[in-house]
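Field log, afternoon session.

UNIT: design team B
ACTIVITY: writing a sequence onto a fixed backbone
BACKBONE:
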């Protein structure tokens, strides 16, 4: 029995945990050590939904995920965009002037260079964001702070000395919610279809495969390639398009694509997150 759980990678208080809270507030978050563990928890029935980060507007895609998605056996049922707001967390009662060092994941440290420099705080690399908050709470050292989500302060009993200290104010992470069974029954103003494919070994195969989307007026919002099994000659493509496979123009485009591919797997059909439209101009998602 899954007990209405949503699985995520990381410690409680991680940004993935925050994504779970925002997207499925009625579900119990289940922290997992690795992305593989997240997927397995859903496959085994220990959780109903997997919350997986796929890309960040500043740092690009989460590399491991694209290899795991097609082989997971799970289906995308939703997407969620989470703004990365970074807070400086410290032992309660500590003034900002006492902080000498800040610990976090190296990626987060790189997003707060301006604040750390202005306050003469030295950056220390930690395992991850929520794990750094957990360690700061355990040490009780007033000169040491953590850079993490505000949720981590709530979980580990730390005080937020400063909020939204990130250098770039539009930093956003896109998550995919995945389940054991697909759901193509929903309809929204803006639907998305995600799939992976491999082109046949014929001249200009990719060019020809893409032609059907242009001629049928289907907007492709993402197309990425990556190697399969570490072999340079075996390339797989991941794509997001606007529309539902039952839409006439999408069906025609996918039919044409299948003619030029040796493999085509639809990973999910789901409504676009409302934040997606507001990201135009800052992040072409």
């Amino acid at each position: 029995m899954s007990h209405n759980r949503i699985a995520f990678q990381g410690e409680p208080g991680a940004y993935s945990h925050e994504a779970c809270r925002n997207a499925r507030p009625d579900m119990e978050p289940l922290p997992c050590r690795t992305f593989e563990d997240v997927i397995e928890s859903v496959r085994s029935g220990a959780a109903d939904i997997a919350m997986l980060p796929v890309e960040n507007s500043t740092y690009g895609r989460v590399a491991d995920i694209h290899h795991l998605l097609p082989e997971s056996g799970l289906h995308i049922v939703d997407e969620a965009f989470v703004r990365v707001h970074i807070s400086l967390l410290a032992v309660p009662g500590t003034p900002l002037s006492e902080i000498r060092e800040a610990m976090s994941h190296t990626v987060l440290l790189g997003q707060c260079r301006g604040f750390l420099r202005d306050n003469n705080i030295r950056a220390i690399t930690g395992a991850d964001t929520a794990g750094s908050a957990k360690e700061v709470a355990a040490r009780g050292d007033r000169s040491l702070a953590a850079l993490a989500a505000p949720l981590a302060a709530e979980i580990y009993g730390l005080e937020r000395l400063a909020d939204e200290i990130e250098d770039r104010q539009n930093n956003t992470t896109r998550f995919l919610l995945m389940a054991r069974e697909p759901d193509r029954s929903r309809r929204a103003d803006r639907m998305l279809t995600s799939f992976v494919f491999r082109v046949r070994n014929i001249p200009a195969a990719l060019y020809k495969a893409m032609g059907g989307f242009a001629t049928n007026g289907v907007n492709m919002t993402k197309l990425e390639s990556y190697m399969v099994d570490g072999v340079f000659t075996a390339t797989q493509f991941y794509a997001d398009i606007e529309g539902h496979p039952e839409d006439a123009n999408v069906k025609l485009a996918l039919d044409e694509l299948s003619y030029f591919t040796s493999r085509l797997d639809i990973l999910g059909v789901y409504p676009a997150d409302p934040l997606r439209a507001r990201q135009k101009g800052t992040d072409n998602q």
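LOG NOTE: The two ends are 35 Å apart (CA to CA).
NEXT ACTIVITY: expression trials, pending approval
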